[in-house]
Amino acid sequence: MSGGPRIALVTGGHARVGLAISRALAAQGWQVLLHAFRGVERAQALDRALNSVPLGVWQADFADVEATLASFDRLLDTLPPQAELAVVFNASIFDNDDRDSATLANFRANHAVHYEVPVLMTLAAARRFPDGQALVLLDQNVENLHDQFLSYCLSKGAMYAALKRLALTLAPFRVNAVAPGPTLLPHGADAVRFEAAALASPLRGASTPEDVADAVVWLMGAGRVTAQTIFVDAGQHLKQWREPAAPSV
Q1: Of 73-82, 183-192, 226-235, which range is least confident?
Q2: Which of 62, 55, 17, 54 minimizes the C-alpha distance to 36?
């Protein structure tokens, strides 16, 4: 423990599951530093609501890896050197493609957002705050193979594969992950099919954003735990599982 302020940077922390995570961490006494690409005004309002002294919002487009890393280095310069830093990688893109529709542009965008930026930001954070931690939001599909969302799944799988090596290399900096299943209805998806698929899971129902946030909070407080992934998916990764109500390619 550093004895300094506890600061949690939550990427995409102003919407959907990220919003639940930000609120849960603030309730545990973390100062929540929000990242947003779009919806900056909403993030600014949340910053004011969560923090007694607003921290400001870090705006970055993770698809532009070099610009993001340069901006992140500048952000790290503004943090107290004695801070206890946690970086929660929640920001995501979710576009359906398959072997016939996958493009180089979509492949690169997914790997930038879900793999390259999290890995390289984690390295940068560990160099500056070696007693800090990173928490990555993965997806239950890293253990449940299917042929949908190919670029997305490949990028999440790459991050899953990197997790243990990063944890070993960067210790005492900790690196853990949470892998949700279907939690909130994807944009453009069929609500009836989504609910039916969730009810077919072993625990019979979709996870909630608060379920995911609870796992994030636990891992971030578990000071002797690293290189672990908690699946918050009602057991969905134990079965063959296609994305429920996925929009057509």
Answers
A1: 183-192
A2: 62
Give me the pLDDT at residue 75, please: 98
Q: Say whether pTM exceeds 0.85.
A: yes
Q: Tell how strand 84-89 and strand 6-11 pair up.
A: parallel
- List residues bridging with 85 in a β-sheet: 7
pLDDT tens-digit readout, 127-179: 999 999 999 999 999 998 888 899 999 999 999 999 999 999 999 999 999 99
Angle formed at CA 58 by CA 5 and CA 184, multiple of 5 degrees: 95
Averaged pLDDT of the chain: 93
Which backbone phi and psi does 246 adopt, to 5 degrees?
-60, 135
Residue 44, classified by CB atoms within 10 Å of its CB into exposed (0-12), middle (13-18) or buried (19+), is middle
Cα dihedral 211, 217, 221, 222 sign: positive
Q: Tell me if 231 sits within 8 A of 137, measured CB to CB.
A: no
Q: How far apart are CA 44 and CA 107, in angstroms?
A: 31
Average pLDDT, integer, range 43-63: 98
| Cα gap 9→5, rounded to integer Å | 13
How far is residue 210's CA from residue 231's CA, in Å, rounded to a whole number?
A: 14
And the tokens for 56? Answer: 């400001």
